[in-house]
Amino acid sequence: MKDSVNRTPEGIKIHPPEDFAGMHAAGRLAAETLDMIGPEVQVGVTTEHLDTLIEQFVTDHGAISATIGYRGYQHASCISLNHVVCHGIPGPKALRDGDILNIDVTVVLDGWYGDTSRMFVAGTPSRKAARLIDVTHDSLMRAIEAVKPGDRFGDIGHAIQSFAEGQRCSVVRDFCGHGLGRVFHDAPNVLHYGKPGTGAILRPGMFFTIEPMINLGRAGTKVLADGWTAVTRDRTLSAQFEHSIGVTEEGCEIFTLSPAGRFHPLHETPISA
Ligand code: MF3
Ligand code: CO
Ligand code: CO
Fold first, then answer.
1. Residues framing ligand 1 (Cβ under 6 A)
2. How far is the CA of 104 from the centre of ligand 1 (A)?
3. If you measure from the C-alpha of residue 105 to the centroid of ligand 3, how many angstroms do you get, rounded to a whole number?
């Protein structure tokens, strides 16, 4: 197999144009998985039931779940409710009216990784929860709009931080986005905060995720005794959205766009990328 390993001095892989097709297919399947699960997110449903549906859908489509067996993780999704920041473990607890949840899936299709997450709501969210979802969604989309070759990773972080903090929310520092491709997690760490004009230069052929976690309260997190579940220290609500993208000559391509146009849970998002 041809291994076109071409990395920047920072260790960031530059993929040739022919690598975009595999990422596009993997990203689309990951997005379709979340499109499938949307209508299943209902009051009274358990998160382990949602996870079972996800695992079935992924395998039915000729892919495998990247998270099953990853560092001992045993599920096809992470489902993070309310004050859970990320890496929530699916379990027997039923969803309640007003719960907000992030569902994060990563599939491997023909060796390529597609990693995406969105917020969902069970029943009717509170106004402050709906506002957090809006701010987090818009943080990610502003960051993606900032991705242009020649700009820098710090510009991405700054786009998120300046917007989210301007909305009186805080940006989680303890988890970041990541390079991906034929591997799940690669260089660079994609920080969701930063200063314009700093960090590695964005170049066509870089593949990475942007996945900001935004809190209504303070940014601090801690991991529970299960070794996975990260929660806000102050127990305030947290939200997250994640796309996998590839830098192009013009800007970037979102690999994990929803074919159904469903990304934001509270309104349809006509995304022109
Ligand atoms: N999908 C997550 C990410 O965005 C990683 C989950 S790893 C797991 O990088 F083991 F917790 F599933
Ligand atoms: Co990710
Ligand atoms: Co993810």
1. 67, 70-71, 73, 78, 87, 104, 106, 115, 209, 211, 228, 242
2. 7
3. 6
201 by DSSP, 3-state: which?
strand
CA distance linking residue 257 with residue 152, whole number of Å: 23
Q: pTM value?
A: 0.97
| Separation in Å, CA 267 to CA 16, 45, 104, 242, 261 | 36, 22, 19, 17, 10
**Confidence at 266, pLDDT banded by 50, 70, 90:** very high
Task: Check whether 19 has a pLDDT greater than 50.
Answer: yes
Instruction: Please give the mean pLDDT across all residues of the chain.
Output: 96
pLDDT tens-digit series, residues 139-148: 999 999 999 9
* Helix H or strand E encompassing 171: strand 170-171
